[in-house]
Amino acid sequence: MMEEKCGHLKYIELDNYKSYKGKQVIGPFSAFTAVIGPNGSGKSNLMDAISFVLGERTRHLRVTKLSDLIHGSVVGKPVSKTASVTAVYQMPDGTERRFSRFISGNTSEYRIDGTPVKVEEYGTALEKIHIFMKVKNFLIFQGAVESIAMKNARERCQMFEEISRSAEYKEEYDRSKAEMQKLEEEATFNLNKKKNIVAERKEARIEIDEAEKYKKLHSRWMSKRTELQLFKLYYNDVDIKRIREDLQQREEVVEQENAARVKIEEEIREKRRELGKLNRDQSSLEQDIKKCDQKVSKRKPEYIKVSQMLRHVSDKHKESKKALENARQQHSSHRQEMEQLEADYARVQALKEEYELQQNKKSKEQGRSLELEDSQLAEYHRLKQKAAEHTSDISAQLDALRREYDEQKDLFDSLERRKEEIENSLRLKQTELSDNQRRLQRLAEFIENSLKSITELSETEGTIREEVENATRRIDEINAELESVICQLGEAKVERHESSRAIRKQELIENLKRLFPGVQGRLLEMCEPSHKRYQIAITKVLGKHMDSIVCDSEKTAKDCIQYMKDQRIEPETFLPLDFLDVQPVDEKLREISDPPNVHLVIDVINCDPVTAKKALQFACGNALVCDTVEHARCVAYNMGERKKTVSLDGTLFQRSGVISGGASDLKARAKRWDEKQISSLMSRRDALQTELKEQLKRKRKEAELRTLQSQINGLEKRLKYTQKDKDSTNYITLQEREEKILSGNEEEVNNLRANLEEVNERLGMCQTKMQELEISINAEKAKMDTVEDTVLHDFCVSIGVENIREYEDRELRIARERDQKRMEFTNQLQRINNQLEYEKSRDTLDAVKRWEEAVASERQEMERCRKQEKRLKEEMEAEEMKKSNLEFQLGEYQQKSEQMDGELAELSRRLVSRKRELQKLQKDISQIEARLESKRSERHSLLQSAKMEDLQLPLKPGASSMPELESQLSAENGGADLNSEEMMRLYAMEARLPLDYKQLEKPLRMIADDKEVVRKADEMQSEVEHMQNELSRFQAPNLKASAKLGNVEQRLRTTEAEFEETRRKAKKARAQFERIRRLRYAAFNKCFLSIAENIDPLYKALSRNPGAQASLLPTNAEEPYLEELQFQCVAPGKRFQQMDSLSGGEKTIAALALSFAMHQYNPSPFFVLDEIDAALDNTNIGKVASFIREYSRTRAQVIVISLKEEFYSRADSLVGIYPDIENNCLVSRVLTFDLSQYEDTEDQ
């Protein structure tokens, strides 16, 4: 079977699809499944269903619209408005995935495992199992085999492009190639243009001497220039005077602000002194609270110890009371048993005496009734002697038997006594067992209570120990982290104070977030430069949007604005994410490598959360950040299309050509990035200090922990000794219980039980022996009686008895009965006396007294513990009350401290506000001074320019001539660079220069508006430039030609720049084209090499002949996809022929070899073939069937539609389709048959 390296198609479920009415499930499909049936039965519809569910378009399914796929639509009677096809695909791990496509009207819906998905997701899911909808690497339609064989070389090349997916690069390949060719043509054009301009430059140099009329306009031009220079100097003086007045006013305001600042600083110092005193008092209260905690901690272990002792003594007292009650009950039972035994003894003694009296009375009543006379008695003895002589042997035997019987009788009596002794011992052991059991019970209860106490204390100790250990560890961690935070704050050297305006802004953000969930925060709070070096540049690019508020929608922004209007809050800028029109990032800008280190501004900003990325992109756009101003200017204006760039020092180059800087202001604004981190560090420091106080409180429980550990150790020691006592008692109890009651194996009980069993056994044996002896004695006695009856017959008649035994038995029986009765009384009295002696030996009264003493002692100990517990509890409650009062006072102090902190913070904010105002004023003064310096420098430049251009500026009457003043200025300058002090002296001398501004026309001196001044200066400059242009039109020597030459050179530079830019673009376009060409070539060549490598072995395998040959050859080795692919086959036993010269079967074999080679390049898990055997004879059918059978077991699942038995008989299973007609409409029916259960007949 096919290796389970990939999944396989298991079922196809059709619902009213084409000729398949209703819901039909086709399958399961084997590794090699053949679909058979007569023509017109619907086999190809099954092929269409597989194509349809795997994404085939409508035009390839032999219908014009999707609704035609519904069953019955071909006859105008659709059975339903919907139809569907589902492919059940079994994954390698055994799970199933259902790929479904539903038709509703003229639309279709894709589903995966019942979930609707987009067609792109559907295609992606199919591609994950190597099924490509566009390439159709999983099926070959009916007749496609012949078409593959008959494709020309160009069509075959296009087919390879589709299979390799290199066609996906064709559009970009053509576009990039056309762009490359276009740019190369433009570069050629610019090169030719450059050559022409070079020729013009040569002509301009030839005309350099053609400027004769230039001198006529030169004088008027110089006059206009002098007037312009004097005009600029006049209004320069006006500006300097105005700036000095402004500077004086600002310096007066600075003095007032300094006085206010000093006053606030004095108030802050006073508040800090008060706060210091308050903090010292607060610290003293905290120390008192700490002392109360220490006292409580000191008393608490004692209290716990006393409480534990009280509970222990109470439990022990309860046990002692129970023991006392048991002892009293045992004593009462003991007394009752003694009284009963004494009564029994008296009763038996009385019965014995009564029996003796009765026997004496009976003896007197019987008298001498059977007494013989002396002659009769002598005769009796004589005859007895005679009988004894006749029975001497029998008598000897009888005596021996009687002696033996007496011995057994004595033994029996001895064993009876031994048995009684053993039973008494057992009773004694049972009593000891009962006592031990009670003692064991008390010990067990004590141990249980002790274990319970130890468990409770251990849990408490474990909790406290864990809390102390965690506190200790956490204190170390907090100290380390706190040290790091304080170090970082120290390095920052910043004490951050917020102005009231900043606080209001922060409160506004918090209120907006609370009222409107869509508000995310200020853009500044959601961004962070990836490195500090970018802070100034990012600050410049973000500009006013640094403080803009980001929200989710336009509605949220409007609600926020309305809320701010209602609350009379100053305006804010909002960035609603759903309203922003954000331009996409130009990816080409990320490819700039020259100059180096050019990045998109948005790429050097970390944004959190990600949702604010859109707002950040809106604020930044496609702005670029560069290392230097030169790099920024080059990227902005010298790389084709203009770009917005910024350097690291904050110089911004706009696309419009505007350049802005402001480094000092930017540095101040960029500090807000550091303030974010400092604010976070200060919050972390406060949180760590608060947590440190809490952890120190927890660590103070170490004393309580040590007390608990001491108590646990004491309990464990007492429990250890009690456990030993219990184990010893329990051992004895178990031992005797098992020996005497439960048949244990210990020595003493075993001996007693063994002795008892031995006695019982010997009693039985003795009794049996006695019975046997009695039988023997009776037998011998009978013999003896016979002899005696014979000898004493006459004597018995004479005394009136039947035989002599009647006389002897009556006297002897009476004597024996009397003796036996007396023996029974004696035994009973002895047994009762023994029991009395044993009971007397048990002193139960002593146990009662001992337990009464224990109960009294424990009662006293309980009373003592209760008093001590009450005392400790009252002391702890007093300390807790004192602590509560102190904490209340501490709370009041803390409130005062917080209030004072607030006042101090307000003063600090006021101070910061004053300082900032002072800084602003100082900044304004610096700016005014800079303006003043600029104006002085401008005046100096104007004078220097006049000197350099030989302009004679008019002076007041009586003043030195201009050349003399110029010599003085030159002497001051000294021809070298001046320091600031020397420059100030130079500026002072220039200020004293007596220029005669009355030489200017009065209207030129009466202009009040600065803009009008600039406009007039520009107008005058335009006149000068106009006159200069007029001069340039004259062929003045060395000037007009020079101007023309400069123009030509400028055009040349422009053309050279255009040429270099076009060449660079052409080079870039060629690189882009080469990249696409390599991608297209790699995709195509990978497919081509794979198929070319596999086609020959596959063709040999299909032909079943190693002499068969097949090859693929490209006509263009460098770009094979542009031209043709030659497919050549040499059939077995034949010479080389063109493809169209091969027979139908040979073409089919060749096409199948190519098809399977293409399938192996990008193998799908299953391969569906429609009537590929149509043109094959029986021999080739067998070859192809065998090959497909092998292919299905090693490569992929194969499903073939076939009409030839020689082919489909080799399949693993068959799907039979037969037609049926319902309502004039074809209905396809399905049968399946498993061939794998039958023996393979391939070799037969």
Structure, explained:
This protein is α/β, with parallel strands linked by helices. Among the domains are: 1-138 and 1164-1244, Rossmann fold, CATH 3.40.50; 494-691, Alpha-Beta Plaits, CATH 3.30.70.1620. Helices cover 67% and strands 10% of the residues. It contains 27 helices and 24 strands. A 6-stranded antiparallel beta sheet has the order 2-1-4-5-6-7. A 6-stranded mixed beta sheet has the order 8-21-22-3-23-24. Strands 13-15-16-17-18 form a 5-stranded mixed beta sheet. The longest helix has 153 residues, at 214-366. The chain is flat and about 220 Å long. Residues 366-370, 491-499 and 729-745 have low confidence and may be disordered. Pfam families: SMC_hinge, SMC_N.
Summarize the structure.
Pfam families: SMC_hinge, SMC_N. The protein has 1244 residues and is of the alpha/beta class.
